[in-house]
Amino acid sequence: MSRRHLPYLTLLLTLNGCSTLSTVTSQSEDTLHQQRLDSEAAASIGGTNTYDFADSSRRSVRRFVVWLGEGVNDWFGDKPFSEGGKVSHGRLSVRLRWQEDDGVDTNVRFNARFELPNLRDKAYVFFGQENKRNLIADQPETFTREQLLTQSRRDDQTGFLGLGVNLRDYVDFRVGVHGGLKPYSQARYRRQWMLSAKNRVEFGETLFWRSREGFGSTTLLELEHAYAESLLFKWQNAATITKETDGFAWSSSVGAFKILGNNNLLSMEALVNGETDSKDYIYEYGTRLRWLQPIYRDWLLIDLILGHFWPSGEKDPERQNNWAASAGLMMHF
Question: Is the pLDDT of residue 155 over 90?
Fold first, then answer.
């Protein structure tokens, strides 16, 4: 390994300790993409040091990911990564969360996916850092701990690395390892239908297995209505069952999503969650206000969330109504 790769290996090890890793580009496209980024950075001489740092950080992260993709591709054959290799779903996010009865904590998420020439039309490799529950149960983004403003301790974060196979247009199978080489697997089905010009339905089912906890499943159902070109209404639902849950642990949200100029998004949702076989069928009600906006070009975004939550039932009688908020930076690469 050459010295120029040491900073990238250091970044990987740092993520492994905090853990292990949508726009698709080939290696040749990566080169053109890199040249464009360099020219854009040079052209923005009037920009601030902060923006220069953002450009530099993104270039460094992407160089690291491409370098890693080249190394992984070599595991499976002799065809070089430059002959059709692609990096997609690259995202690095850092979030600061505050909750009235829980204090302040931070969270880091990092993920990317490789389509490798030596596995062309057969499989893909994915890696990153994620909350263990979100990762293995394949929770929809709407109901991740990050979006629900729920505490995510450092011990809950795990690095992961896996191999996915596309079995059909709507079906894929994944096997991987997470923190401490613990194996897991997933069989996933995702499909959506347009019921009319303004109405869409999406259904998903994930069957998963973990080395210690055994089998489980997550079901997703989403209905969307386009009231206007820039205004959507969504009803989103998810239910997960494992040997640790009392029946299905379910979540539901209904909300309005307003798309403003420059790809800004404003949303307001009502939330509820619980467990079907628990004494407390409903565990918590809540509301969530979210603002998502690009702050530098189209790849660096700020994500602001404000929520208020009302506990229900007797499962945790000490819980009180509380406010929560978070601020996150997301970088796509």
Answer: no
Running DSSP on this structure, what letter comes out for residue 45? T
Q: What single letter denotes the amino acid at residue 312?
A: S
The Cα 116–Cα 20 span in angstroms is: 19
Per-residue pLDDT reduced to its tens digit, 267-316: 999 999 999 998 888 999 999 999 999 999 999 999 999 999 999 877 67
Identify the structural domains of the chain with CATH numbers, from first to last: 90-332 (2.40.160.40)
Query: For residues 123 and 56, what is the distance between their CA atoms, to the nearest angstrom?
Result: 31
80 Cβ neighbours under 8 A, 6+ residues apart:
27, 70, 73, 117
Q: Is the separation of the CB atoms in 189 and 170 below 8 Å? A: yes
Give dist(CA 289, CA 269) in Å, integer. Answer: 7
Long-range residue pairs from 9-17, CB within 8 A, at least 24 positions apart, any chain: 11/60, 11/61, 11/64, 12/64, 12/68, 15/108, 15/110, 15/129, 15/159, 16/129, 16/159
| DSSP labels, 286-317 | EEEEEEEEEEETTTEEEEEEEEEEEE-SSSST
What was the pLDDT predicted at 53? 87
Q: Hey, is 5 helix, strand or coil?
A: helix
Which residues 6+ apart lie within 8 Å of 153 measured at CB?
Answer: 105
77 Rama sector, left if φ>0, alpha if ψ -120 to 50, beta otherwise: left
pTM confidence score: 0.81
Number of H helices, E strands in the chain: 4, 15
**So what's the pLDDT on residue 202?**
98
Residue 19 reports pLDDT greater than 60: no
- Which residue is it, tokens 């490798």? 116
Is-contact 145 157, C-beta < 8 A? no
